[in-house]
Design goal:
By secondary structure, the protein is mainly β. It contains no helices and 25 strands.
Length: about 350
Protein backbone atom coordinates (compact mmCIF):
# COMPACT_ATOMS: atom_id res chain seq x y z
CA UNK A 1 0.00 0.00 0.00
CA UNK A 2 1.11 3.57 -0.51
CA UNK A 3 0.92 6.73 -2.53
CA UNK A 4 2.52 7.03 -5.94
CA UNK A 5 3.47 10.69 -5.43
CA UNK A 6 3.49 13.29 -2.69
CA UNK A 7 0.13 13.49 -0.87
CA UNK A 8 -1.73 16.80 -1.18
CA UNK A 9 -1.02 19.62 1.26
CA UNK A 10 -3.57 19.65 4.07
CA UNK A 11 -4.78 22.05 6.73
CA UNK A 12 -7.58 22.51 9.25
CA UNK A 13 -10.43 24.47 7.67
CA UNK A 14 -12.93 24.57 10.54
CA UNK A 15 -13.58 23.28 14.05
CA UNK A 16 -11.72 23.51 17.34
CA UNK A 17 -11.25 19.79 17.85
CA UNK A 18 -13.82 19.85 20.65
CA UNK A 19 -17.55 19.15 20.79
CA UNK A 20 -19.76 21.27 23.03
CA UNK A 21 -23.46 20.60 22.40
CA UNK A 22 -25.69 23.04 24.29
CA UNK A 23 -27.90 22.23 27.27
CA UNK A 24 -30.50 24.67 25.92
CA UNK A 25 -31.26 26.12 22.52
CA UNK A 26 -28.54 28.32 21.09
CA UNK A 27 -29.11 32.08 21.31
CA UNK A 28 -29.91 33.82 18.02
CA UNK A 29 -26.87 34.37 15.86
CA UNK A 30 -24.68 31.90 17.74
CA UNK A 31 -22.41 30.01 17.35
CA UNK A 32 -20.56 32.13 14.80
CA UNK A 33 -17.06 33.41 14.18
CA UNK A 34 -13.82 32.42 12.47
CA UNK A 35 -14.19 28.78 11.36
CA UNK A 36 -11.28 27.48 13.44
CA UNK A 37 -12.73 29.12 16.55
CA UNK A 38 -16.22 27.59 16.35
CA UNK A 39 -16.79 24.12 17.78
CA UNK A 40 -18.23 21.69 15.23
CA UNK A 41 -19.36 18.61 17.09
CA UNK A 42 -19.09 15.56 14.85
CA UNK A 43 -19.32 17.15 11.40
CA UNK A 44 -20.79 14.82 8.79
CA UNK A 45 -22.06 16.30 5.52
CA UNK A 46 -20.32 18.94 3.40
CA UNK A 47 -21.58 20.90 0.40
CA UNK A 48 -19.62 23.51 -1.56
CA UNK A 49 -21.18 26.11 -3.86
CA UNK A 50 -19.82 29.11 -5.73
CA UNK A 51 -20.12 31.32 -2.63
CA UNK A 52 -20.66 29.13 0.41
CA UNK A 53 -19.71 25.97 2.25
CA UNK A 54 -22.33 24.07 4.25
CA UNK A 55 -21.51 21.63 7.05
CA UNK A 56 -23.88 19.44 9.06
CA UNK A 57 -23.08 18.45 12.65
CA UNK A 58 -24.69 15.56 14.50
CA UNK A 59 -23.66 16.31 18.10
CA UNK A 60 -25.78 19.48 18.10
CA UNK A 61 -28.02 18.59 15.11
CA UNK A 62 -27.22 21.77 13.20
CA UNK A 63 -26.20 23.12 9.81
CA UNK A 64 -23.46 25.72 9.49
CA UNK A 65 -22.55 28.02 6.61
CA UNK A 66 -19.09 29.43 5.88
CA UNK A 67 -17.98 31.75 3.13
CA UNK A 68 -15.72 30.00 0.64
CA UNK A 69 -12.73 31.99 1.87
CA UNK A 70 -13.07 30.58 5.36
CA UNK A 71 -13.40 33.95 7.07
CA UNK A 72 -16.62 33.36 9.03
CA UNK A 73 -18.90 30.45 9.85
CA UNK A 74 -22.39 30.69 11.34
CA UNK A 75 -25.22 28.39 12.35
CA UNK A 76 -28.11 28.65 9.89
CA UNK A 77 -30.33 25.70 10.84
CA UNK A 78 -31.04 23.66 13.94
CA UNK A 79 -31.37 25.14 17.40
CA UNK A 80 -28.79 22.81 18.94
CA UNK A 81 -31.28 20.35 20.43
CA UNK A 82 -32.32 16.97 19.08
CA UNK A 83 -35.90 16.58 17.90
CA UNK A 84 -38.27 17.02 15.00
CA UNK A 85 -40.01 20.36 14.98
CA UNK A 86 -40.12 23.78 13.36
CA UNK A 87 -41.66 23.11 9.95
CA UNK A 88 -43.05 26.35 8.56
CA UNK A 89 -40.80 28.48 10.74
CA UNK A 90 -37.23 29.76 10.80
CA UNK A 91 -34.69 27.01 10.15
CA UNK A 92 -32.43 28.18 12.98
CA UNK A 93 -35.23 27.56 15.49
CA UNK A 94 -36.08 24.08 14.20
CA UNK A 95 -34.98 20.75 15.61
CA UNK A 96 -33.23 18.04 13.61
CA UNK A 97 -32.03 14.56 14.54
CA UNK A 98 -28.63 13.66 13.12
CA UNK A 99 -28.70 15.62 9.85
CA UNK A 100 -26.29 13.85 7.54
CA UNK A 101 -25.65 14.96 3.98
CA UNK A 102 -26.84 18.24 2.49
CA UNK A 103 -27.14 19.60 -1.05
CA UNK A 104 -27.83 23.08 -2.46
CA UNK A 105 -29.62 23.95 -5.70
CA UNK A 106 -29.03 26.99 -7.90
CA UNK A 107 -31.76 28.95 -6.09
CA UNK A 108 -30.05 28.49 -2.73
CA UNK A 109 -32.50 25.90 -1.39
CA UNK A 110 -30.87 23.33 0.89
CA UNK A 111 -31.94 19.68 0.89
CA UNK A 112 -31.15 17.81 4.10
CA UNK A 113 -31.17 14.10 4.92
CA UNK A 114 -32.61 14.37 8.45
CA UNK A 115 -31.50 10.84 9.09
CA UNK A 116 -32.89 9.79 12.45
CA UNK A 117 -36.14 11.61 11.82
CA UNK A 118 -36.44 9.46 8.67
CA UNK A 119 -37.35 12.45 6.51
CA UNK A 120 -35.96 14.72 3.83
CA UNK A 121 -36.28 18.40 4.66
CA UNK A 122 -35.69 21.54 2.63
CA UNK A 123 -34.61 24.99 3.76
CA UNK A 124 -35.99 27.73 1.52
CA UNK A 125 -33.24 29.87 0.03
CA UNK A 126 -35.41 33.00 0.05
CA UNK A 127 -36.83 33.17 3.57
CA UNK A 128 -34.77 30.50 5.42
CA UNK A 129 -37.85 28.58 6.56
CA UNK A 130 -37.81 24.82 6.82
CA UNK A 131 -40.33 22.21 5.75
CA UNK A 132 -40.47 18.46 5.29
CA UNK A 133 -40.28 17.47 1.65
CA UNK A 134 -40.95 13.75 2.11
CA UNK A 135 -41.37 11.27 4.96
CA UNK A 136 -43.70 11.03 7.95
CA UNK A 137 -41.07 10.79 10.70
CA UNK A 138 -41.49 7.04 11.20
CA UNK A 139 -38.94 4.44 10.17
CA UNK A 140 -40.25 2.10 7.49
CA UNK A 141 -40.89 1.72 3.80
CA UNK A 142 -43.98 3.17 2.16
CA UNK A 143 -45.17 5.55 -0.47
CA UNK A 144 -43.98 4.23 -3.81
CA UNK A 145 -45.45 6.74 -6.25
CA UNK A 146 -46.79 8.82 -3.35
CA UNK A 147 -45.50 12.07 -1.88
CA UNK A 148 -45.09 14.06 1.33
CA UNK A 149 -46.17 12.39 4.55
CA UNK A 150 -47.47 9.33 2.67
CA UNK A 151 -43.83 8.30 2.21
CA UNK A 152 -41.62 6.46 4.68
CA UNK A 153 -37.83 6.17 4.74
CA UNK A 154 -35.55 4.25 7.07
CA UNK A 155 -32.50 6.32 8.03
CA UNK A 156 -31.83 8.12 4.76
CA UNK A 157 -28.18 9.19 4.87
CA UNK A 158 -27.46 10.91 1.56
CA UNK A 159 -29.15 13.18 -0.94
CA UNK A 160 -28.00 14.33 -4.38
CA UNK A 161 -29.62 16.51 -7.02
CA UNK A 162 -29.76 14.71 -10.36
CA UNK A 163 -29.92 17.89 -12.51
CA UNK A 164 -33.04 16.49 -14.15
CA UNK A 165 -35.63 17.79 -11.70
CA UNK A 166 -35.12 15.16 -9.06
CA UNK A 167 -33.52 14.58 -5.69
CA UNK A 168 -31.90 11.18 -5.16
CA UNK A 169 -32.07 9.65 -1.68
CA UNK A 170 -29.91 6.85 -0.28
CA UNK A 171 -32.61 5.13 1.79
CA UNK A 172 -30.00 3.22 3.72
CA UNK A 173 -31.83 0.73 5.93
CA UNK A 174 -34.39 0.10 3.21
CA UNK A 175 -31.45 -0.84 0.93
CA UNK A 176 -32.83 1.33 -1.84
CA UNK A 177 -31.97 4.33 -3.96
CA UNK A 178 -35.08 6.47 -4.31
CA UNK A 179 -35.91 9.63 -6.25
CA UNK A 180 -38.14 12.56 -5.33
CA UNK A 181 -39.61 14.43 -8.29
CA UNK A 182 -39.19 18.03 -7.16
CA UNK A 183 -42.13 19.23 -9.24
CA UNK A 184 -44.73 16.64 -8.24
CA UNK A 185 -43.19 15.34 -4.98
CA UNK A 186 -43.66 11.73 -6.14
CA UNK A 187 -41.15 9.22 -4.75
CA UNK A 188 -40.01 6.23 -6.81
CA UNK A 189 -37.36 3.54 -6.39
CA UNK A 190 -34.44 3.75 -8.84
CA UNK A 191 -32.52 0.73 -7.54
CA UNK A 192 -32.72 -1.80 -4.72
CA UNK A 193 -35.20 -4.53 -3.91
CA UNK A 194 -35.48 -3.81 -0.20
CA UNK A 195 -33.42 -6.86 0.72
CA UNK A 196 -29.67 -6.48 1.29
CA UNK A 197 -27.63 -8.22 -1.35
CA UNK A 198 -24.65 -8.11 -3.67
CA UNK A 199 -25.59 -6.68 -7.08
CA UNK A 200 -24.58 -8.21 -10.39
CA UNK A 201 -22.46 -5.88 -12.49
CA UNK A 202 -24.21 -4.94 -15.72
CA UNK A 203 -27.68 -5.79 -14.45
CA UNK A 204 -30.73 -3.53 -14.63
CA UNK A 205 -30.46 -1.16 -11.65
CA UNK A 206 -34.21 -1.30 -11.00
CA UNK A 207 -34.03 -5.05 -10.41
CA UNK A 208 -30.76 -5.15 -8.48
CA UNK A 209 -30.34 -5.46 -4.71
CA UNK A 210 -28.23 -2.95 -2.78
CA UNK A 211 -26.48 -3.41 0.55
CA UNK A 212 -26.60 -0.33 2.76
CA UNK A 213 -26.35 2.53 0.23
CA UNK A 214 -24.78 5.29 2.28
CA UNK A 215 -23.50 8.04 0.00
CA UNK A 216 -24.17 9.40 -3.48
CA UNK A 217 -22.46 11.51 -6.13
CA UNK A 218 -23.81 12.47 -9.53
CA UNK A 219 -22.33 13.56 -12.85
CA UNK A 220 -23.75 13.77 -16.36
CA UNK A 221 -23.29 10.08 -17.08
CA UNK A 222 -23.41 8.27 -13.73
CA UNK A 223 -24.89 8.01 -10.28
CA UNK A 224 -22.12 6.86 -7.94
CA UNK A 225 -23.10 4.84 -4.84
CA UNK A 226 -21.08 3.83 -1.79
CA UNK A 227 -22.38 0.61 -0.22
CA UNK A 228 -21.19 0.79 3.36
CA UNK A 229 -22.22 -2.71 4.38
CA UNK A 230 -21.14 -3.98 0.96
CA UNK A 231 -17.68 -2.37 1.32
CA UNK A 232 -17.76 -1.39 -2.32
CA UNK A 233 -18.46 1.38 -4.85
CA UNK A 234 -20.95 1.10 -7.71
CA UNK A 235 -22.37 3.32 -10.41
CA UNK A 236 -25.60 3.51 -12.33
CA UNK A 237 -25.26 4.37 -16.00
CA UNK A 238 -27.79 7.16 -16.47
CA UNK A 239 -28.24 6.36 -20.16
CA UNK A 240 -29.38 2.75 -19.86
CA UNK A 241 -30.01 2.40 -16.07
CA UNK A 242 -27.54 -0.47 -15.66
CA UNK A 243 -25.54 -0.98 -12.46
CA UNK A 244 -21.78 -1.44 -12.60
CA UNK A 245 -19.18 -2.51 -10.05
CA UNK A 246 -16.46 0.16 -9.66
CA UNK A 247 -14.32 -0.74 -6.66
CA UNK A 248 -14.01 -3.03 -3.65
CA UNK A 249 -14.14 -6.80 -3.42
CA UNK A 250 -16.92 -6.67 -0.84
CA UNK A 251 -14.69 -7.93 1.95
CA UNK A 252 -13.61 -5.66 4.79
CA UNK A 253 -9.98 -4.69 4.54
CA UNK A 254 -7.44 -2.06 3.60
CA UNK A 255 -5.29 -3.01 0.68
CA UNK A 256 -4.96 -2.58 -3.04
CA UNK A 257 -3.39 0.89 -3.26
CA UNK A 258 -1.53 1.21 -6.54
CA UNK A 259 -3.59 -1.54 -8.13
CA UNK A 260 -6.97 -2.06 -9.82
CA UNK A 261 -10.00 -0.72 -7.88
CA UNK A 262 -11.91 -4.00 -8.20
CA UNK A 263 -9.14 -5.82 -6.33
CA UNK A 264 -8.91 -3.27 -3.51
CA UNK A 265 -10.63 -3.64 -0.16
CA UNK A 266 -12.49 -0.98 1.82
CA UNK A 267 -14.03 -0.86 5.29
CA UNK A 268 -17.33 0.98 5.57
CA UNK A 269 -16.99 3.54 2.73
CA UNK A 270 -19.24 6.56 3.11
CA UNK A 271 -18.64 9.99 1.53
CA UNK A 272 -18.18 10.32 -2.25
CA UNK A 273 -17.12 13.20 -4.51
CA UNK A 274 -15.88 13.63 -8.08
CA UNK A 275 -12.91 15.96 -8.64
CA UNK A 276 -12.12 18.09 -11.69
CA UNK A 277 -10.00 15.32 -13.23
CA UNK A 278 -12.89 12.85 -13.09
CA UNK A 279 -11.36 10.97 -10.18
CA UNK A 280 -13.60 9.55 -7.48
CA UNK A 281 -12.82 10.49 -3.87
CA UNK A 282 -14.00 7.92 -1.32
CA UNK A 283 -14.11 8.40 2.44
CA UNK A 284 -13.02 4.98 3.70
CA UNK A 285 -14.45 5.58 7.16
CA UNK A 286 -13.40 2.58 9.21
CA UNK A 287 -9.93 2.65 7.64
CA UNK A 288 -9.64 6.28 8.82
CA UNK A 289 -8.66 7.31 5.28
CA UNK A 290 -9.61 9.19 2.14
CA UNK A 291 -8.88 7.19 -0.98
CA UNK A 292 -8.93 8.23 -4.61
CA UNK A 293 -9.94 6.13 -7.58
CA UNK A 294 -8.41 7.22 -10.87
CA UNK A 295 -11.12 6.08 -13.22
CA UNK A 296 -8.95 6.45 -16.33
CA UNK A 297 -5.81 4.73 -15.01
CA UNK A 298 -7.91 2.27 -12.95
CA UNK A 299 -5.81 2.63 -9.81
CA UNK A 300 -6.52 3.35 -6.14
CA UNK A 301 -4.44 5.49 -3.78
CA UNK A 302 -4.71 6.90 -0.26
CA UNK A 303 -4.60 10.71 -0.21
CA UNK A 304 -5.34 11.51 3.44
CA UNK A 305 -5.13 9.58 6.70
CA UNK A 306 -4.59 5.84 6.63
CA UNK A 307 -1.17 4.94 5.23
CA UNK A 308 -0.29 8.61 4.59
CA UNK A 309 -1.45 9.91 7.98
CA UNK A 310 2.04 11.03 8.97
CA UNK A 311 2.28 13.21 5.87
CA UNK A 312 -1.30 14.54 6.08
CA UNK A 313 -3.58 14.11 9.11
CA UNK A 314 -4.57 11.21 11.31
CA UNK A 315 -8.33 10.85 10.88
CA UNK A 316 -11.00 9.50 13.22
CA UNK A 317 -14.08 8.08 11.51
CA UNK A 318 -14.36 10.65 8.70
CA UNK A 319 -17.65 10.98 6.81
CA UNK A 320 -18.63 13.64 4.27
CA UNK A 321 -16.47 15.00 1.47
CA UNK A 322 -16.91 17.67 -1.21
CA UNK A 323 -14.73 19.06 -3.99
CA UNK A 324 -14.46 22.51 -5.59
CA UNK A 325 -11.70 23.39 -8.07
CA UNK A 326 -10.62 26.59 -6.29
CA UNK A 327 -10.51 24.86 -2.90
CA UNK A 328 -9.56 21.25 -3.48
CA UNK A 329 -11.50 18.91 -1.25
CA UNK A 330 -12.95 19.28 2.22
CA UNK A 331 -13.49 16.23 4.41
CA UNK A 332 -15.35 15.91 7.71
CA UNK A 333 -12.90 14.46 10.24
CA UNK A 334 -15.93 13.61 12.31
CA UNK A 335 -14.75 12.31 15.67
CA UNK A 336 -11.88 14.81 15.77
CA UNK A 337 -14.59 17.51 15.45
CA UNK A 338 -13.01 19.36 12.56
CA UNK A 339 -13.13 19.83 8.80
CA UNK A 340 -9.90 19.44 6.83
CA UNK A 341 -8.93 20.90 3.49
CA UNK A 342 -6.54 19.38 0.96
CA UNK A 343 -5.34 20.75 -2.37
Amino acid sequence: MGWAAEPPSTQIFAGTGQSSPPAAAYPAGQPAGPPREVALGNPFGIEITQRDIYITTVDDHCIYRSDSGGRRIERIAGCGLMGYSGDGGPADEARFNWPHEIRADDAGNLYVADTRNHVIRVIDGRDQTVRTLAGDGTAGFAGEGASGSDVRFNQPHSVALDDAGGLLVADTLNHRLRRIDLETGAVTTISGTGKPGWPRSGADAAESPLFGPRSLAVDADSIWIALREGNSIWRIDRHDNTLHHVAGTGKKGYDGDGGPPLQATFNGPKGLAIDDQNRLLVVDTENQAVRRIDLKAQTVSTVMGGTVADATYRLKRPHGIAFWPALGFLVADSEHHRVLRAN
